[in-house]
TrEMBL record:
Transmembrane segments: none annotated. Gene3D superfamilies: 6.10.240.10, NAD(P)-binding Rossmann-like Domain. Pfam families: KARI_C (PF01450), KARI_N (PF07991). The gene is ilvC. Keywords: Amino-acid biosynthesis, Branched-chain amino acid biosynthesis, Isomerase, Magnesium, Metal-binding, NADP, Oxidoreductase. This is Ketol-acid reductoisomerase (NADP(+)). It comes from Saccharomonospora marina XMU15. It catalyses: (2R)-2,3-dihydroxy-3-methylbutanoate + NADP(+) = (2S)-2-acetolactate + NADPH + H(+); (2R,3R)-2,3-dihydroxy-3-methylpentanoate + NADP(+) = (S)-2-ethyl-2-hydroxy-3-oxobutanoate + NADPH + H(+). SUPFAM superfamilies: 6-phosphogluconate dehydrogenase C-terminal domain-like, NAD(P)-binding Rossmann-fold domains. Coiled coil: none annotated. The keyword Cytoplasm does not apply.
Length: 337
């Protein structure tokens, strides 16, 4: 199945420049969208509750900060970039009462629409602009004249203009420099959850931690294990990013390539593929979404326990020490890029 990919020449920036945009939330994605929209000549205000710790960061950048309800009332395009689990209540309390004919409701991820936690009225456009990358890098790439690819989707289109509006928004945050692919809320949500759980975050973290454990439990120095399975992973992935797996295999030694081809399938066995399929089924049938919403409503006890265990993993102590000696690696995450 072929996809439609759009670039800057396909987008009309004046469409988003003609709207009053409210960005609800100023975290990883919120700050990136808000600052890049502003730098692209868009009229932006930020919606954050009184007392939010993000308020000071947005104000330091000279952005106008209102409450979510005030921002939604003023704007004719509302982009929700608060945590997925908070969006349902923000929508019902602050946004829904402020929606009018012709408004557009935008999302950075399809979770709340796909799992029907938010059901917008028929008179507003509902669309998505989902960058395929962490927000701090979305902003960093924009500032560097580059861009992170984005997915766009349209769920409701009473204006008949929702796709052009989403593409214009994606261009304003740098996405159309890299490529904007048209998809659906369902496809974005399911592939995004699968990617972060199985490969990008869950799979990669578990692979690195397990490799570190195997080496250190066998008596090798933690510093050597860290460089081998974590630090060098970025250098290897950089080659894949630039030229695919083939370029990485071209650059590593024949010995490494033979080990890759013969041992890789012994690590990622058919059982691992079955596990990935089971994870995908839990995403598709709503099991994961129900579990995550219930965990959040219960105050996230299991989430916190697992976070603490991750922070206590010995690789973190070794890594902190080594990164502290490489000033170019230990780059702080900021909200200004
Ligand atoms: N992180 C990423 O890179 C990516 C995220 N997304 C999607 O973007 C959305 C935002 O995620 P992310 O950027 O990670 O979120 P973060 O957790 O980084 O930031 C959330 C922001 O929302 C604010 N917030 C919390 N409660 C409210 C509220 N009641 N009203 C308004 N604002 C509130 C927080 O403020 P405070 O400081 O007070 O907590 C914070 O500024 C999600 O849909 C996510 O799936 C999509 C692609 C990548
Ligand atoms: C990979 C995690 C992500 O989906 C992202 C940065 O794209 C997220 O939800 O943060
Ligand atoms: Mg993602
Ligand atoms: Mg995600």
């Amino acid at each position: 199945m072929s996809v439609e990919i759009f670039y800057d020449d396909d987008a009309d920036l004046s469409i988003i420049q003609g709207r009053k945009v409210a960005v609800i939330g100023y975290g990883s994605q919120g700050h990136a969208h808000a600052l890049s929209l502003r730098d692209s000549g868009v009229d932006v205000r930020i919606g954050l509750p009184e007392g939010s710790k993000s308020r000071a960061k947005a104000e330091e950048e000279g952005l106008r900060v209102l409450t979510p309800a005030e921002a939604a009332g003023e704007a004719d395009l509302i982009m929700i970039l608060a945590p997925d689990t908070k969006q349902r209540s923000i929508y019902s309390e602050d946004i829904e009462p402020n929606l009018s004919d012709g408004d557009a409701l935008f999302f950075g991820h399809g979770f709340n629409i796909r799992y029907e936690l938010i059901k917008p009225p028929a008179n507003v456009d509902v669309a998505m602009v989902a960058p395929k990358g962490p927000g701090h890098l979305v902003r960093r790439q924009f500032v560097d004249g580059k861009g992170v690819p984005c997915l766009i989707a349209v769920e409701q289109d009473p204006s008949g203009n929702a796709q052009a509006l989403a593409l214009s928004y994606a261009a304003a945050i740098g996405g159309a420099r890299a490529g904007v692919i048209k998809t659906t809320f369902t496809e974005e949500t399911e592939t995004d959850l699968f990617g972060e759980q199985s490969v990008l975050c869950g799979g990669a973290s578990a692979l690195v931690q397990t490799g570190f454990e195997v080496l250190t439990e066998a008596g090798y120095a933690p510093e050597i294990a860290y460089f081998e399975v974590l630090h060098e992973l970025k250098l290897i992935v950089d080659l894949m990013y630039e030229g695919g797996i083939a370029r990485m295999r071209y650059s590593v030694s024949d010995t490494a390539e033979y080990g890759d081809l013969t041992r890789g399938p012994r690590v990622i066995t058919p059982e691992v593929k079955e596990n990935m399929r089971a994870i995908l089924r839990e995403i598709q049938d709503g099991t994961f979404a129900r579990e995550w919403v219930a965990e959040d409503e219960a105050g996230r006890p299991n989430f916190r326990k697992l976070q603490e265990a991750g922070e206590r993993h010995p690789i973190e102590e070794t890594g902190a020490k080594l990164r502290g000696l490489m000033s170019w690696v230990d780059r702080p995450i900021t909200e200004t890029a």
